[in-house]
Recover the amino acids of this structure.
């Protein structure tokens, strides 16, 4: 039986994350929104705190992996709520500022990939490294199977050639997990992920993008030109298994999509709380004991937005709970990401609409800008709906495009 209430043992974690968000993130949120591309030095001490939480198994507010390879003992049983803890912590931190959370050292999406598919030896070797994730290319967006960056084996190295765009923390991270194909003719099964460390010859940060939202976080364009990467930096197995496809690298998304949903929930909650305060100060009463259609129009709209938020929140907790209990959660992860991504955009924009000029004096307009990316990265709204449709109808990617 699933219980979608936050467990009592997560209370301390939630409180710590909330305090960090309220006392550190919120006060500097506007500062780094304006000072785009400036690294927030205030984050270093929190990165160390999250390192300790993640290494202890308690989970924090960063990107952790879902381990699915190994012995039967590893496959069975509850992970002591590790995924749920990370989701709950992420919600609180993004209530403070989602761009600052994305700037946290050693909490990148590449770290989730390493945690999900790396061997035990690789986990130890890359421990303490800040890893970004490089998937998208100029020629494709949501279709991860269209990777054209190549990886050619040459002795004890792979030679990478290609370009990646929209890489979160691409400039600041210590390394990048790069998706590349070993053999384009063999399709998805030949796509593997490689850890490429900064300073590797042939690895270049081309530029850092200017953005609408999450401006505290850097988003880079990367180029790989005859970049030689040690063969042992290929995550997982180098064998091309056409029967399995590229399930290994895609496995990362089952973990990171609930995290992005959690980011969206944190931003949505922040917008709703701020809007409630502004409406209350303006004399609008929100009454949960009366039908919405008998209340002020702004109150009725607020109640609708809050219900949308609650449904996204519960879907996200469900997907994390399933991961903790070793249940396949690909469907639920995509449902949570699709729902939360769509909801946060509508909630944030509607909150700006409801508050009018009052919203300009708060962070509401910033949250409206931050919200849009949460419906796009880690798989757009459209690709999530496609994945959900495939799972519900029992169709393959070839049958339902």
């Amino acid at each position: 039986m699933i219980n979608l209430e936050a467990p009592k043992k997560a209370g301390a974690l939630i409180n710590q994350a909330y305090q960090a968000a309220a006392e550190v993130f919120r006060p500097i949120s506007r500062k780094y929104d304006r000072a785009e591309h400036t690294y927030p030095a205030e984050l270093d001490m929190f990165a160390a705190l999250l390192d300790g939480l993640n290494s202890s198994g308690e989970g924090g507010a960063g990107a952790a992996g879902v381990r699915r390879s190994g012995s039967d003992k590893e496959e069975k049983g509850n992970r002591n709520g590790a995924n749920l803890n990370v989701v709950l912590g992420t919600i609180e931190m993004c209530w403070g500022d989602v761009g600052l959370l994305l700037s946290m050292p050693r909490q990148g999406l590449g770290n989730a990939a390493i945690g999900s598919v790396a061997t035990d030896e690789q986990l130890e070797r890359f421990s303490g490294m800040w890893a970004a994730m490089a998937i998208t290319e100029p020629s494709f967006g949501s279709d991860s199977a269209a990777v054209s960056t190549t990886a050619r084996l040459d002795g004890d190295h792979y030679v990478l050639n290609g370009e990646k765009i929209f890489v979160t923390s691409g400039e600041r991270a210590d390394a990048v997990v790069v998706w590349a194909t070993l053999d384009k003719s063999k399709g998805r099964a030949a796509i593997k992920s490689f850890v490429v460390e900064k300073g590797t010859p042939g690895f270049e940060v081309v530029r850092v993008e200017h953005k609408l939202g999450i401006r505290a976080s850097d988003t880079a364009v990367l180029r790989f030109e005859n970049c030689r990467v040690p063969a042992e930096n290929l995550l997982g197995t180098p064998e091309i298994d056409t029967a399995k496809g590229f399930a290994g690298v895609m496995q990362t998304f089952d973990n990171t999509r609930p995290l992005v949903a959690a980011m969206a929930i944190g931003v949505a909650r922040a917008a709703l709380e701020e809007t409630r305060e502004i409406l209350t100060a303006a004399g609008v009463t929100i009454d949960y004991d009366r039908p919405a259609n008998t209340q002020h129009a702004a109150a009725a709209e607020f109640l609708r937005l809050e219900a949308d938020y609650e449904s996204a929140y519960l879907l996200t907790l469900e997907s994390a709970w399933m991961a903790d209990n070793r249940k396949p959660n690909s469907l639920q992860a995509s449902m949570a990401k699709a729902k939360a991504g769509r909801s946060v955009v509508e909630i944030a924009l509607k909150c700006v609409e409801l508050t009018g000029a009052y919203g300009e004096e708060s962070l509401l307009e910033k949250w409206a800008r931050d919200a849009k990316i949460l419906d796009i990265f880690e798989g757009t709204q459209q690709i999530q709906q496609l994945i959900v449709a495939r799972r519900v109808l029992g169709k393959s990617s070839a049958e339902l495009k």
Summary: The longest strand covers residues 157-168. Confidence is low (pLDDT under 50) at residues 69-75.
